[in-house]
Amino acid sequence: MTIHRVNCLQKLLQQEEMDMLALTAGPDLSYFCNLNFHLSERPVILIITQKSQSILFYPTLESSKVLESAIPLKSIPYGEDPKNWIATLQTAKRYSGSKITKIGIVPTCMRFLELQLLQQLFKKAEFIPATNLLSKLRMIKDKAEIEAIRKAVKIAEAAMKNLKPILAAGQTEKEIAAELVVNLLRAGSDPDLPFMPIVASGPNSANPHAVPSERKLKNGDLLIIDWGARYQGYISDITRTFAIGNIENKLKDIANIVLKANQAAREKIKPGYKASEIDFAARESIARRGYADCFIHRTGHGIGLEAHESPFISQSNEQTLEPGMVFTIEPGIYIAGVGGARIEDNVIVTENGVQTVTSISRELLFL
């Protein structure tokens, strides 16, 4: 399957008149060769040209890993002495062809370490952004990718099922987050979780990206838990809102409004609709109840090898939805000093509409 991805990329390179794409360790590199490297002081560069065999420049200590590549590679390992890196990398230039004038990179991922080596190697080349080109490929998921995401959702939901019985007043946000991490790993998640779970209670739940703290859950709190698993590199991203004991009617209303906004957005999803229209459905639902200013982020984002990728379900995105897109729907209401509610689901655009992959209850759960 990854060979097919490389072939598709090579066609796009030809269409864009881009001679070569250079990728560093990260999700884009993994997408094409199914190899994962941790960012370190040692450079890793994957080179894909319009026609030649793909080239991988990597430290010798990773040689056993490279044998697991899903695509044929011209391997160029290097030793520990940085003085020899550029001389070793010269081999890549010979295999990539003599006329390299335009090199695509991902500006948000390409480090100066690797960029400097490439600039020394291809002195006359122009380096141009290739982010959109890669997004075109990665945002439409194939069957294997979708199945991996489904599995990641099941793992995350199993972890939450085992967490619910221990959720109670008196526990700290950190304690809950730690237990959830253990549950995710026990349920089958890859060790590198997509993100640290967000556990935000009481006033902290008004912060969409709160960090778990030493705050103890109290009766009357709203509790937001945002968590996800990773399976074969692909992630899930789910959020649910809970009530600790008896809560004020205003907080119940907030949770119910968010639930209806989530439903309104998911019901709107269909091939041909724009991402902005899905965002509008959620935003209008919340605005009708007087909380427009309290919905302070986009309605959703794509998921795959990354927790945030294209397509982005926002007011400004006029992109048309297509079958195979997988993204979140996560409207929220946040009131500073009081609390917040968010309900996040993972959905797949199908030929006829949408399929919601998450099955865990969206109703406010009283603990």
Walk me through what this model shows.
The chain is α+β, with helices and mostly antiparallel strands and 367 residues long. It folds into two domains: 2-138, Creatine Amidinohydrolase, Chain A, domain 1 (3-Layer(aba) Sandwich), CATH 3.40.350.10; 143-366, Creatine Amidinohydrolase. It contains ten helices and 19 strands. The two termini are 45 Å apart.
Brief overview, please?
The protein is of the alpha+beta class and 367 residues long. The protein has ten helices and 19 strands.
Which labels suit this protein?
single chain; 367 residues; alpha+beta; Creatine Amidinohydrolase, Chain A, domain 1; Creatine Amidinohydrolase; six-stranded mixed β-sheet; four-stranded mixed β-sheet
Write the layout of secondary structure elements.
Blueprint: H1 2-15, E1 20-23, H2 27-33, E2 45-49, E3 54-59, H3 63-66, E4 73-78, H4 85-96, E5 102-105, H5 112-121, E6 126-129, H6 131-138, H7 143-163, H8 173-187, E7 198-201, E8 222-227, E9 230-231, E10 234-235, E11 238-243, H9 249-268, H10 275-287, E12 300-302, E13 309-313, E14 326-329, E15 332-335, E16 339-342, E17 345-349, E18 354-356, E19 365-366
Parallel strand pairs: 1-5, 3-4, 5-6, 11-19
Antiparallel strand pairs: 1-2, 2-3, 7-8, 8-11, 9-10, 12-13, 14-17, 15-16, 17-18
CATH superfamily of the largest domain: Creatinase/methionine aminopeptidase superfamily
| Count of individual helical segments | 10
| Count of distinct structural domains | 2
Shape: elongated
User: In percent terms, what proportion of residues is strand?
Assistant: 15-25%
CATH architecture of the largest domain: Alpha-Beta Complex
**Helix- and strand-based class?**
alpha+beta
Instruction: Tell me the name of the CATH class of the largest domain.
Output: Alpha Beta
- SS elements, strand count: 19
Radius of gyration: 23 Å
Q: Give the rounded overall mean pLDDT.
A: 94
Instruction: Identify the strand order in the major beta sheet.
Output: 4-3-2-1-5-6
Helix content: 25-40%
Distance between the termini: 45 Å
Q: What kind of sheet is the major sheet?
A: 6 strands, mixed
Q: In CATH terms, what is the fold-level topology of the largest domain? A: Creatine Amidinohydrolase
Topology pattern, helix = H, strand = E: HEHEEHEHEHEHHHEEEEEHHEEEEEEEE
